[in-house]
Amino acid sequence: MSRQSEGPRHPLSQAARSDADRISETSLHERPRPSAGCHVCHATQWTLVCSSGEIFSQRRQLERFYRRRWHAQPSGTSEDRWIFTQNYLTSIVACLECGLLYRNPRPRPEAITRAYLATRNDHESVRTEFETQGRWFRSKAGMLCGYLPVRSRTAPRVLEIGGGTGGFLAEGQALGWEMLDLDPDHALTDLGRRRGSATLQSTIEDAGWSGETFDAVTIWNSFGQLSDPHPLLNSVVPLIRSGGMLVIRIPNGACFEWAMALRAKLPKPWRRPLDAALAWNDLLTFPYLYGYSPVGLTSFMSSFGLTLRACHADTLPSVPAARLKWWAGLEERMVKGGCRTACAVSRQPVRGDFHLAPWLDVYFERP
Ligand SMILES: [Zn+2]
User: Domains plus CATH for the chain?
Assistant: First the structure.
């Protein structure tokens, strides 16, 4: 049976799904009811960026987008692109004080955690992602090289949180770094150990480490999906040596907000190039709990004693070529190339909002 004939696979566990369904039933037809304020500045006033009805429409559009471009697959990997863990109808709002984007309302944190643990990461799809993203992670390791504190006698110690496929860990090891990967997902850590990598199935809060241990900590995935990043940052910042780096990769909330404002002004046919850019970068429907801007994230990190060192514009890593029809692969390369060119030409300052960049790598230093 082809994937097209199957119903969408929902990655939420049953318990989490009941929360999500309850939200989708109410939020589509009613004015959103705030269930939470801004976790950065604690303000409760917000302005609407994208209504739940609009998110519903974008989700349908995203499904059509990928069904048209994906090969029929024996596994359900194509659906992962439009059936995200944050797959419930809600509004996207912006904090009136600090500009943080967040989903409102949203399920309880316990339901969100259960949803992530229920997400499938089979060995075959992880292996394919690992092979595809090698070059991308090589560029990330090369970039981090320029920011690591220089130590003549010992190799840099680098911790990756939520290592996913293990691509960055492998590239760091190839550069001679002492790498450690921390991930709560059993399938991912199991695969990492089979490759001989130093992976630990745990969260940073449960790891129980103390003292200044690492030259750099990287969070390439999932920072925007943390219900409350405070416990993680309270645990991780003291582990970074003086002069060391915390690198966080985020979907750019400022980019999504700018795109939604532009999209609302455009006639429908003219939206297609913008929607394609958003879809190829996983920004359509904004399936993340939080959307930080570079300015907002810098302000948030300063409360943990970290200072901004650099901000780099980027796009989402490429989809494995074998999963796409040939013309879709070409379209993806052209769209992402266009995004990178637009970012480079606009020459946005380090402290600007980088609104043309779908994704950002933000480097913070511990003084
Ligand atoms: Zn705020």
Answer: 3-118 (no CATH), 123-254+293-365 (3.40.50.150)
